[in-house]
Amino acid sequence: MTTPKLIWTTHKLADGWVLLCVEANLEQPGEPQAMLGFKRAVHPFHFDEASEPVVAFTHVIAEMTDAIMWGAAGHSALDHCLPRLRGLCA
What we know:
Blueprint: E1 5-12, E2 18-25, E3 35-42, H1 44-48, H2 53-85
Antiparallel strand pairs: 1-2, 2-3
C-alpha cells in the first residue's frame, strides 16, 4: 500500500471551538474517488490549560494521524478481500 496523501483543514465553530479535519485520498487508478475522513473539535482553552500547549496540540494531531492511517490500512486490506467477496476469485 502506498501512503495516502493527507489533506488537513480547519473550520471555525461557535464559542471558539475549532473543527480539525483530516482526509486520506484512497483513490486508485481506474477506480472512483475514495476519501476517508476523521474530524475532531477542540477548544483553545484545552491547550491554554496544558503545561506544554504545543505538545498537547501535537498530541491531538498525532492521534488523528494514527486514526486516519489505521483506517487507510484497513481500506487496503479490504481491497484484497473485495474480489473474493464479489465472487471474482476462486
